[in-house]
Amino acid sequence: MSRASFPKQLWPLVGERTMLQETALRAAGPEFAPPIVVCNAEHRFLIAEQLREIGIENARIVLEPVGRNSAPAITTAAMIVAEDTPDAILWMMAADAAITRPEALQSALVKAVSAAGQGNVVTFGMQPTRPETGYGYIELGDAMTGLDGVYRVAAFREKPDLEQARQLVASTRYFWNSGMFVFSARTLLDEMRAHAPDVVAACTEAVAHRVRDLVFERLDPAAFAKAPNISIDYAVAERTAHAAVIPADLGWSDVGSWDALWDISPKDQDGNVALGDVFLEDARDCYVRSEGMVAAVTGLSDAVVVVTEDAVLVTHRDRAQDVKRVVERLTAAGRHEARAHNRCYRPWGFYESLISGDRFQVKRIVVEPGQKLSLQKHYHRAEHWVVVEGVATVVRDHETIMLRENESVYLPQGCTHRMENPGRIPLTLIEVQSGAYLGEDDIVRFEDTYNRS
């Protein structure tokens, strides 16, 4: 389900809201400033829309031209905040973790803010519940004077093997590394200058030359690309003399595997998690999820079954981490499924392929009210649009055509065209493509509302 074009942060994996929405709502309220979201430029419209759905319309969305791990992303956010309030306290959260005890989080956050105000880089140590080999660990040091429940970090430990994990969990001084941090903008930038000056140099230039793009802020591509690919843990947390940790039991999970998701999800009397159109018979301790067609599981225990429109995963829960190997093989084979879903989201709505064959393809296209596609043409294909719901305004060369339900228009190969939804309900149409080449890169854009090239 988590693919490059639509990663797990944008899915409602735990509850009704997406993981991005759940993360943003943890910092909602009058005591918090509007959030800064640093993200891949490809996901900008999806993220803006998901934030709008939960009432957050004043977020600052900063676009990375290329992924460079967490340290450059966090550094740019701190620099942007420091332009106005250098001593502001920042709470850094990855948008792909689940927390089932939010009340405990708020209590820990109060302690973290106090410690960060004294110049510390504060993280949260999660109470381990099992020997976990997929997480890093934090060793507790001495208690910090005058800060209740806050400790020095004695050491960070890399992801251990199973025997080492058992030893760490048996000790009372080791906690899972949550990857959440609290620090002042000034402290973070001072520590970055001391321990990762090459990151600071690249980010300083990228922030100074950022440009406004609609509601987004685009970092300078050439400057940001110079930043090393390094995490905040390696850049600062493991090097600073001011690392502090707050042990907490937050019901935290980074949802790094289907087994981890089974662990934190509500279960039936047989220990099963069933989501979507699912039927279970004599199944126990299984995670079964369907995003479409009916999925039936019989006579299995400890299984993971996930069904999407274009892929099915079946694995033992103990082997859930092995899905990474499958993705590597799909990527090496050049499979489209390794990167994108059948449904592809765009700033105007989405499209999905229904059927394809030799020299033809049929798609469903949904355009949100008030939105429109770019003015474009195709060199290698013709298209036929049939409206099945809503109203469309179509430009075809020098014509403007109004289409209603059950009406259609033919767009010859090479004609200039665009479509707009002038109505108040989503516009749904069926597109039939025909031609020698039907790839998405056969688009020449002349004008685009969303500033896409």
From TrEMBL:
The keyword NADP does not apply. InterPro entries: GMPP_N, Man1P_GuaTrfase/Man6P_Isoase, Man6P_isomerase-2_C, ManC/GMP-like_b-helix, Mannose-6P_isomerase_type2, NTP_transferase_dom, Nucleotide-diphossugar_trans, RmlC-like_jellyroll. GO terms for molecular function: GTP binding; isomerase activity; mannose-1-phosphate guanylyltransferase (GTP) activity. Pfam families: ManC_GMP_beta-helix, MannoseP_isomer, NTP_transferase. Residues 282-330 form the MannoseP isomerase/GMP-like beta-helix domain. Its EC number is 2.7.7.13. It catalyses: alpha-D-mannose 1-phosphate + GTP + H(+) = GDP-alpha-D-mannose + diphosphate. One of its GO terms (biological process) is GDP-mannose biosynthetic process. Residues 5-269 form the Nucleotidyl transferase domain. CDD domains: cupin_PMI_typeII_C (cd02213), GDP-M1P_Guanylyltransferase (cd02509). It is an enzyme of class 2 (transferase). Gene3D superfamilies: Jelly Rolls (2.60.120.10), Spore Coat Polysaccharide Biosynthesis Protein SpsA, Chain A (3.90.550.10). SUPFAM superfamilies: Nucleotide-diphospho-sugar transferases, RmlC-like cupins. Keywords: GTP-binding, Isomerase, Nucleotide-binding, Nucleotidyltransferase, Transferase. NCBIfam families: GMP_PMI. Belongs to the mannose-6-phosphate isomerase type 2 family. This is mannose-1-phosphate guanylyltransferase.
